[in-house]
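User: Need the bound-state model for pyridoxal-5'-phosphate:
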Amino acid sequence: MNQPRKRIYVSVPHMGSNELRYVQEAFETNWISTVGPNITAFEKAIQDRVGLPAVALSSCTAAIHLALRLVGVAEGDEVFSPSLTFIGGVNPILYLGAKPVFLDCDAGSWNLDPNVLQDALKTKAERKCLPRAVIVTHLFGRCADMDPILEVCGRYGIPVVEDAAEALGSLYRGRSAGVFGAVGTFSFNGNKILTTSGGGVLVSQNEEWVSQARYWSRQARDVGGAFEHSDLGYNYAMSNVLAGIGRGQMEILDQRVQQRRDVALRYRSALADIQGVEFPRETPGDFETYWLSRILIDEARLGVTRDSILQVLEAYNIEARPVFHPMHLQKPFLRAERFGGAVSEDISRRGICLPSSSSLSAEEQDLVIAVVRETIGASRETQTANRGCLDA
Ligand SMILES: *Cc1c(COP(=O)(O)O)cnc(C)c1O
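Assistant: Bound-state model below.
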């Protein structure tokens, strides 16, 4: 190959055929700002998909901020969150002057461990300082075990905010991620399963809360044009231009989910024979989108470190990432209280997120697989067979 090969990223935007048309319509009709038919259609598409009223926002971080406020989080309150998550889902706790408390995940699902949650709530109840809310994240598109989580939270009367940023299209016991908590949120950031370039959505069974979130997202402007505001608001609305992208993306959600699952399946069948590379197992009865394909490395067994695998991939101009760094180890949260943490730390230390884009071609993925195999010396035969591919 004469030209340098294109970099392979972990997750890139993947447009369908109608996004540009809806954006063009916004220009032609001059609905460029934060109202217009794309917003209405995008919100309806979400509602049709997940079954709950929805409001389009500027990001999922904004959606979580509003969600926490809706369930009553205020200054000084404590909020439970899984430690293994993305920081955008956690920072809004601090925006509200509340205190995060981090809980460990379970080794199977990498999501909030219901047993840790139960113990933490019991401890807090004894101290008479229950949290105001529990954030539950569905990491990488795999659903957390909502039944026991909802059961124990219900027992203590604590509302659940569901961070489904990575789980649009995922199902828990046949129902859409995001509909189980008091409020659910989705991300349309550029690296997510669908994107609006940047954006978020808030859903709730409580229609008044959805209206309240919409009102807060538009500077809490009172009815009429008199610039009167009787509450604190934010500039969190989504633009009608970007909602046009989201409208087109929602039309092809199933296709994008299938493509991500196909990528994950190909990794599994190509690497499953290697002792020391583990794949997360799908929970029977649930449906996971595999937003990102990930593996766990047993360094002792393989004789290579996780980081050396990342470095070799990088040398081939392939982006791969460690799994999220636990929140209890992050500078802004070092003083936060936590329950457990060893499981999150272990996954974070040994996990790799592989290139997972729905647009990843078979040739690109073959290269990634060949580099991983070569790095861990899994199969000399495969190495030789792929030599031409690696040299390309
Ligand atoms: C991406 C992500 C967010 C933040 O979403 P934005 O739309 O980028 O603000 C929050 N939580 C999780 C788990 C995420 O993956």
